[in-house]
Amino acid sequence: MDSRVYIIKFDNWGFMVNLMNKIQILRKISQTLFFVRALIVTGFYLSIVGFIKRFIIGDRILATIITKIIAIVLAFIAGRVFCGWMCPFGFLFNLVYELRVKLFKLKKLPTVDEKIHNKLIYFKYVVLILVVLAYLSGVKISGYTLAYLLLALFLVLGFIYPMFFCRYVCPVGSLLSIFARFSIFKLKLDENKCVGCRLCERKCPMQIKITEKIDQMECIRCFECMSVCKKGALSFSAFTKNTKKE
Ligand code: SF4
Ligand code: SF4
Hints:
The chain is mainly alpha-helical. The protein has one domain (5-238). The chain is built from twelve helices and three strands. The structure holds iron/sulfur cluster (2 copies).
């Protein structure tokens, strides 16, 4: 008996396009709802510093505690779903890079030089350590001006390079990446179906080399790659490995 468990796998292209469109709509709805919720919970004060502090260090607001537990459990099960579906800042950074794609009619998302990118992705772990150290040593960072300056800076950087903050800086993303490393459901590539067109890589906002090695720790489960793969070579599944070329 085939013990593999699939949640998203397709052989029929028409069915796949339909389903992926629905998943993208669902993702947009989820992102919007969580964004509105964040606005209400914070009294319209969207502070990156506050967000990091609440998530990494914690606070006593029940809604935050529940969101944090959900994000970590989801990371264990399916990876960084929080980043792609729930994070209010992820939503904003998603919007700005999509705006750039629309304005400049881009066919391929802008990329950072490969060597620099491969080093920069580790910077967010340094930020995570710094945040914990700052907390332990009693350093307090706050202020409206700083919050909005940081948001503006990362929105501009996110306009130039998709999800810049999420890729390189966010300590919440780095914390969830650690759990995502062991996630049950993973994004997989079937090398027998892949024709090497790299359409998926052109659309990946996290600049993952999907056709070489899918970095599950970096993947934010946006499923943009699956939406553009015309060969159905990508699947999101549990208990399976990448299918090697026969
Ligand atoms: S879009 Fe599909 S077929 Fe093309 S490179 Fe990516 S996985 Fe392979
Ligand atoms: S690999 Fe696919 S699901 Fe993961 S971040 Fe890139 S486009 Fe999104």
